[in-house]
Amino acid sequence: MRRRASLVLVALAVFCAALGPLLRWYAFPRLAKIPPGQYQEMVLEAKPATLLDYGTLQAKEVEKVTIVQTLKGNVEESRKIERSAGRDVVVWDCLSYVQGPDGRMVSQIPERYIFDAHSQAPVHATGESVDGDAVRREGIEFKWPFLTEKQDYEYFDAQTRTSAPIHYKGTRTFRGLDVYYFEQTIAWTKVPYPKKMPIPGVDATTLEEQTGTTRWYTTKRMFWVEPVTGAPVNGEEIHKEELRGGTLLGGRDKVTAFAGHVKMREDYLDHTVALVSSQRQLVLLMTSYLPWGLVALGCSLLALSLWLEARSRRPDDPAPAAGARTPEPAVSG
Fold first, then answer.
1. What is the pLDDT along the chain (333 residues), one digit of tens a residue?
2. Alpha carbons 287 and 147: distance in angstroms, whole number
3. Nearest CA to 194 among 258, 143, 115?
4. pTM of the complete model
5. By the 8 A CB rule, do 297 and 9 touch?
6. 92-126 in b/e burial notation, b at 16+ Cβ within 10 A?
7. Handedness of CA 139, 231, 96, 189 (dihedral sign)
């Protein structure tokens, strides 16, 4: 009976020991994915900020500038691309909407971002664009890969339409979470005008050709990334834009179009940290808790089976030696 039980335990031990690595390296890449229909909204503010009044073309300090970023999963488009790509694909229709203190639009830039649902690597397909211009992204944007590593990554900058390294700067604690801190600096670069801008009587798509006035941009981009999920829990930018030269400025060399330290609004920080904390437990379940737990259980079952096997092989009490006499009871009297 003990031998039969030990064989059953050996089979269970082998099953658990095999299932642990299978969960980590086979199931995890197939189950941990960004859902194709995800919707996310983020509000960032620069308080105070310098903003150009396009009516007078004079820069002035304002109480705040608000940037609303929305990411909306396009399920229909992702299914179309998946048929040819042969993998799970997410299509995000994104919009960065900038508004002044009076609530009026300063600019808006739409994007279509197409990427692998698990690795977050870009997938190049028709429709990949920034502000209606076709682009070919390299590296990541918006989100880091699951199980982010302590290394530099290529990060796509929508203003310049190019990718540049974003550097790992160390591990920090942010609101109770251990996070990786990354920085990227984009030097002054001439960039296109947003196609929707509040410039009276001027078509923003041909502004540079009409006036010779160019738009320049620089930023220092900072992210605090929860490494298990690859989700940023905080993001900031020290952002500057200038208009330079041409007839639009009335003889001036340059004028500040926007300058400010852009930060996530407090209520969105709280919501993001809570959401990422819950998702982190799900990822850890597949990458750590279950795989290592199953391996440990398999080792325990194997040890128990070996103990039972040893017990089953232990000989019974030895029989009396040949010729040995059984002592007779003494008779009194």
1. 555 666 666 677 677 777 777 777 777 777 888 999 999 999 999 999 999 988 888 999 999 999 999 999 999 999 999 988 888 999 999 999 999 998 889 999 999 999 999 999 999 999 999 999 999 999 999 999 999 999 999 999 999 999 999 999 999 999 999 999 999 999 999 999 999 887 766 677 788 888 899 999 999 999 999 999 999 999 999 999 999 999 988 889 999 999 999 999 999 999 999 999 988 988 888 887 777 777 777 677 667 767 766 766 665 545 555 555 555 555 544
2. 9
3. 258
4. 0.84
5. no
6. bebebbbbbeeeeebbbbbbbbbbbbbbbebbebe
7. negative
One-letter amino acid of 238: I
In the numeric block, which tokens belong to residue 216?
């320049």
